[in-house]
Design goal:
Layout: H1 4-11, E1 24-29, E2 36-44, E3 47-56, H2 59-72, H3 77-81, H4 85-91, H5 100-120, H6 136-141
Antiparallel strand pairs: 1-2, 2-3
Helix pairs in contact: 1-2, 2-5, 4-5
Length: 142
């Protein structure tokens, strides 16, 4: 059963779309379920001014994308890096256990977009690791 917040973000997603001249773009997927998430960032002076997403996946994947974008807009790149899948789930009042991987997709798509931003601007973001293409790599570690 999904929370009201999950249903709201699925039915009325925030920040859906793309940013043509994005400063950072990150794409991750999950081969097991077929979900793919792409996050676009517009950054000025180290602060995320705009963020959009495109997600191919289930309702939980759309909802976690929507919530994650709301959580990083207006934040510094360092603050955005600290947005975890657990924080996304809490902000949505939880997810069913079989949908936890959707929140991990959102976290990793943000990290991948931050990585792309850092590479394009030749900067280092403390604690940022190279992105994964498939979150199964992370799920296997945990």
């Amino acid at each position: 059963m999904y929370s009201e917040k999950v249903m709201d973000h699925f039915m009325n997603p925030r920040n859906m779309g793309e940013i043509e001249d994005a400063d950072g773009v990150g794409t991750v997927g999950n081969a097991k379920c077929g979900d793919i998430m792409r996050i676009f960032l517009k950054v000025e002076d180290g602060v995320i001014q705009d963020v959009k997403f495109k997600t191919f996946g289930c309702g939980a994947a759309v909802a976690t994308s929507s919530m994650a974008t709301e959580m990083v807009v207006g934040k510094t790149v360092e603050e955005a890096l600290k947005v975890t899948n657990k924080a996304v789930m809490e902000a949505l009042d939880g997810l069913p256990p079989v949908k936890v991987h959707c929140s991990l997709l959102a976290e990793q798509a943000i990290h991948a977009a931050l990585w792309d931003y850092a590479q394009k601007h030749n900067i280092t973001i403390e604690g940022l690791k190279p992105p994964v293409e498939d979150i199964e790599e992370i799920e296997e570690e945990e």
